[in-house]
Amino acid sequence: YVQISDVKASNITFEPVNCTRRSVVYMACTELACGIRPLYVAPQHKVVEGGVVRTAGSGDWPWSAALLKDGVHACDATLIHPSWLLTTSICFQGQGRALWMARLGGIRISSKAPWVQEKLIVGMVKAQVPGSQIVLIKLADAEVEISDYVRPACLGSHTSVSDLTKRRCRSLGWGSR
Fold first, then answer.
1. Which Gene3D superfamilies match (predicted)?
2. Is pLDDT at 130 greater than 80 in this prediction?
3. 26-69, pLDDT tens digit by residue?
4. I want to staple 91 with a disulfide (CB 3.0 to 4.6 A). Which of 75, 116, 144, 154 is the partner?
């Protein structure tokens, strides 16, 4: 029999223990769901100029990706599939050829955390709808590894406009810290 020494530690260890009652806890892993933030902890908000602002913690926004042009942050995207990101065409307007990478799982642009993943961007598809600025970005090679730090957002189904007006939305972006 074993017990977990510290469930909040970054490196969980198991310690042997005596279990005279012979009671057992069974744990099983299931498929990781989209749109779930398993590491999110509700913050103590601070109000700045009438809006709520806070620094994100690791795993708070696992579908958020930074798009890097030649190693420099250019814009952001949302993971919608282990091989695809969603962003806006404005990100690429006026841009010449460059090496584009997607960085997922980090809360700092320069993060070297072990769960941060970088993927080469190998293509993009602009929406064919007139006036649309939606772009799908294809990631290279194998799919990103889905984890507590990297997982896709859920794409909604067909929803009426009245349902959309009742939803709360958040804007994500990379600050200066």
1. Trypsin-like serine proteases
2. yes
3. 666 666 677 777 777 666 655 555 555 556 677 778 999 999 99
4. 75
